[in-house]
Amino acid sequence: MFMAYLSTLCTDASTGKQCIKKAIDALFSPQPQDSDGFEGHLESTSESTDHMKPTLIWSCVYVQEITQGTSTSGSLWSCPMPDENLDYRNILESTKKLFGDIYHDEEFLPRNSAPVHGDDDSDSAE
């Protein structure tokens, strides 16, 4: 099994949902209504396996508002929402800056040594 994540930029939520629906229809075959789970989900009535689409088991479509910049208001601190980029570099940089603004003298995500467990007897002398 695999998971696919589709996204599109749009100015209208309805248009965006239609675009995603068309992409889902083009890429995947719906799961048969009489299927009892995963048995036979790779079977195809087509004689050519070159045109066989993967079976869609479950899908979810949502609208995500994209905001830019870090905003602060009184005691409220926030970072931008994820955008269309999959690497999240902008979010990490904004988070690091926000952390520095709140905790001036602290290191951002410091490296810690491996935790020492009190119930570990491997270091005890015999």
Describe the structure.
It is a single chain. The protein has 126 residues and is an alpha+beta fold. It folds into two domains: 63 residues, no CATH class; 32 residues, no CATH class. 23% of the residues lie in helices and 8% in strands. It has two helices and four strands. The strands form two sheets. It has a two-stranded parallel sheet with strand order 1-2. It has a two-stranded antiparallel ribbon with strand order 3-4. A hairpin with a 2-residue loop joins strand 3 and strand 4. It is flat. The chain starts with 12 loop residues before the first helix and ends in a 24-residue tail after the last helix. 0% of the residues are buried. About 11% of the residues have low confidence.
Task: Tell me the layout of helices and strands.
Layout: H1 13-27, E1 29-30, E2 55-56, E3 71-73, E4 76-78, H2 89-102
Parallel strand pairs: 1-2
Antiparallel strand pairs: 3-4
GO molecular function: GDP-dissociation inhibitor activity
Quick rundown:
The chain is of the alpha+beta class and 126 residues long.
Give me some keywords for this one.
flat, two-stranded parallel ribbon, 126 residues, alpha+beta, single chain
